[in-house]
Specification:
The complex is a heterodimer. By secondary structure, chain A is mainly alpha-helical. Chain A has helices at 2-20, 30-35, 39-53, 65-83, 91-100, 107-133, 135-141, 153-158, 164-172. In chain A, helix 4 runs antiparallel to helix 6 (107-133) and helix 6 packs across helix 9. Classes of the chains: A mainly alpha, B alpha+beta. At the A-B interface, helix 2, helix 3, helix 4, helix 6 and helix 8 of A face helix 1, helix 4 and helix 5 of B.
Chain lengths: 176, 199
C-alpha cells in the first residue's frame, strides 16, 4: 500500500513537474502547486489530491471473506429478517432475494450489499489467477506445475523475491 | 491572511477529508480472527482413524435407547474429537431452524478465510453441531445435524470451499461442552475439528 501510494504520488508529481518545466519563470514547489491563483495550476493541484487519495485499482487487495460478510450482515441484517427470512447465507439465493426486494430495502443495505457480494466473488475468482500470475515461480522456483498451483502455495509463500504480480495474486486469493 | 495562505488551508483541508473518506473501514469486532482460527486448527501430524458415520449412528442409538437419561451425568458420545486440533465458534441460528442469523455471517466468513489459507489447504475438517439440554433429545440431535449441514453448505456454496474437505456431524446434547450446566448456551457452540490431512 505504501509502495503504491508512493508510486501514484510519483507519477502525479512527474506529470506536474513536466508541465511546470514549460514555465521557467516559476519554481517547482508545493507552495506553487497548492497556493497558485492560476486556474490551470489549481486544477492540477486538485488532480494531484485526487490521485493521492483515490484507491488504487492496480494494487488493491481483495476484501477478506470475514470483512465482506460482516458488511453484509450489519448493513442488511434487518432487511434479511424482514424480507428474506428463511433464506440462508447462500450466495445466489440471498442475492436473488435482496435484488427482488430492493424497493423496500434500507439505504445502508441498498448501498452496501452489491459491493459485499462482489467482494466475495472477486476473492474466489482470484484463486484462478494464481496459476497464471505465478507460473514462472511455480515451475522455476518450486519445481511444480501451474495446473496444480495449490500444491506449490507453501513454497511460493516461503520463496523470497516472488514477482509483484504473483505476490498480489496470492494475497487477492486470501492464501496468505 | 493572504489569499494565497487561505488557498493553502482550504486545499489541505480538502486533502485531509479525501484521505479520511478513502481510509479502509474500521473492522467490526469479532470474537476471533482468521489468524487465530488458522493457528488453532493447524498442527495435525497424523490423520486420526475417525469414522464419522459410526459416531453419528452411535449418537442416534443412544438417543433412541434413552440411555444416559440425566444430562448432568451424560458422558460425551465422541470424546476422541477432543484430542484433535479444533476451535469453538458461536453461530446464531433462527429458532428451531438451520438458517444462519445475519449477525453470524462474519463468523462464517472468518472460518472461510481460515480454511482458504495456504497452510490449511491440505486439511479436512469436521463441523460438529450441538445443542444445550433443553427440549427433546431426538429433536436436538436432528436440529444439530441440520445446523452443521447448513454451515457446511454456506462454506461450500458461498465461499467455494471444496466439499471434499468438509464433513458435518450433529451430536445434539450428546456432546455437551459444559456437562455441569447442561442448559447453558455454551453447549450450542459449533466445533470445527481438523480430522484429515492430504498425504
Amino acid at each position: 500500500m505504501v509502495d503504491n501510494f508512493v508510486t501514484r504520488a510519483y507519477f502525479a508529481g512527474t506529470i506536474l513537474a513536466n508541465d511546470s518545466a514549460r514555465e521557467p519563470s516559476k519554481a517547482l514547489t508545493i507552495r506553487n502547486f497548492i497556493g497558485s491563483d492560476e486556474p490551470m495550476v489549481q486544477v492540477r493541484s486538485i488532480l494531484l489530491i485526487l490521485a493521492l487519495a483515490s484507491p488504487s485499482l492496480a494494487a488493491a487487495e481483495t476484501m477478506s471473506f470475514g470483512d465482506a460478510a460482516a458488511i453484509l450482515g450489519k448493513s442488511c441484517g434487518k432487511d434479511i429478517d424482514d424480507t428474506c427470512r428463511g433464506v440462508n447465507f447462500d450466495f445466489n439465493r440471498l442475492k436473488d432475494c435482496l435484488y427482488r426486494n430492493q424497493d423496500s430495502m434500507s439505504a445502508p443495505c441498498k448501498a452496501n450489499y452489491p459491493g459485499a457480494l462482489d467482494a466475495i466473488q472477486k476473492r474466489i475468482a482470484a484463486r484462478a489467477t494464481v496459476a497464471r500470475q505465478c507460473e514462472y515461480e511455480i515451475v522455476k522456483k518450486c519445481h511444480g506445475k501451474a495446473k496444480e498451483a495449490n500444491k506449490s502455495l507453501e513454497c511460493l509463500l516461503a520463496t523470497p523475491n516472488v514477482s509483484a504480480r504473483c505476490n498480489q495474486a496470492i494475497g487477492d486469493a486470501g492464501y496468505r | 491572511m493572504r489569499p494565497e495562505n487561505m488557498n493553502n488551508i482550504c486545499l489541505l483541508a480538502g486533502l485531509l477529508v479525501l484521505f479520511a473518506a478513502s481510509a479502509p473501514p474500521v473492522r467490526a469486532q469479532a470474537p476471533v480472527t482468521a489468524d487465530d482460527m488458522t493457528h488453532r486448527l493447524g498442527g495435525l501430524e497424523t490423520a486420526p482413524d475417525l469414522d464419522v458415520a459410526a459416531i453419528r449412528q452411535r449418537a442416534l442409538d443412544r438417543v433412541k435407547s434413552k440411555a444416559e437419561p440425566v444430562a448432568l451425568k451424560r458422558p460425551r458420545i465422541a470424546p476422541e474429537l477432543l484430542k484433535l486440533p479444533q476451535l469453538l465458534v458461536e453461530v446464531q441460528f433462527d429458532p428451531d431452524s438451520a438458517i444462519v442469523r445475519p449477525q453470524s455471517y462474519q463468523t462464517l466468513g472468518l472460518i472461510a478465510d481460515a480454511l482458504v489459507r495456504a497452510a490449511m489447504l491440505p486439511y479436512g475438517f469436521l463441523i460438529v453441531g450441538r445443542t444445550e439440554s433443553v427440549g427433546k433429545r431426538e429433536s436436538n440431535l436432528t436440529l444439530s445435524q441440520r445446523r452443521a449441514d447448513s454451515i457446511r453448505d454456506v462454506l461450500v456454496t458461498t465461499f467455494k470451499i471444496s466439499p471434499k474437505r468438509l464433513q458435518a456431524l450433529g451430536l445434539g446434547e450428546e456432546q455437551l461442552q459444559d456437562a455441569n450446566q447442561p442448559a447453558s448456551l455454551v453447549n450450542r457452540q459449533v466445533q470445527i475439528v481438523t480430522i484429515a490431512k492430504a498425504p
